[in-house]
What we know:
Blueprint: H1 2-11, H2 17-32, H3 36-56, H4 58-78, H5 82-99, H6 105-124, H7 128-148, H8 154-170, H9 174-192, H10 202-221, H11 225-245, H12 247-268, H13 271-284
Amino acid sequence: MFDFLKVKKEMDEPNSPELAQRLSSTAAQLSELEEHKKAERLYSRIYEIYRELYSENKEQYRISFALCCNSYGDTLTELKKYDDALQYYNISKELFEEGANPSGNELLDGIATEYNNIGDIYFFKGNYDEAEKYYRMALEIFDSLSQNSDKAYMEDVAYCYDSIAKAKMGEEKYNEAIDCYDKVISIYESITKGFEINRHTMSFFEDLATAYADKGYTASCDKDFESTEINYKHSAEIFKKLADAFPDEYSDELADQYDDMSALYEDMGNKEMAKEYHKLSKSIR
């Protein structure tokens, strides 16, 4: 109740950059706690503050206003208010575009991020063709940034290909989706090459394992069970290494992969292997 009264008092304060920052911090914490309705109320207030500040000094507050709109859009997306989210993602994109130049990596990154977010909205609305268009616009920017920034944006490139693959999946274009997953896998294999699994690298290995699993599932949708088996085994092998190193974080993921393999062998009519992987999953859980 004290926190409620504190936030209410802050909401009634006159507009200022300091108030916007304090409310933004609180809204971000609420989002992490999945209190999206409460965060939405705060972002509405933060938006009004930054809109006023931006109108007074565009150069000083452009990025802050753009990031506010992005966060507002993220919250609305979580609440499935897709049309409203699209509105704020577009505002954010336009703000980043106002200052974009060939050397402005932060601004170009912001534009590409909003293209991805807009693509996600169209994906959630079932418009996969439009989603893919925006994902490819993001990909073009991130690919260019990666080539000019010592591969610093390779993860973003992989994310774009992953998003395109899911749009292709929505259209049941499985072969095209698999081609995209191959690119994701190639990127993460390049990133993880020569590295051991540790706290700094584990997320890269997780993304690689997930890409193999997604490619396997896509192949299963096309009834290519042989390819599914190969990719599921690659995924399970990586998740096994992750689970051995960090059991609290990855045991469930390994068990899930074994469940998927059990279901695959059921579909293939191999009851013995299906039972074996079911037992492996159960022993982990």
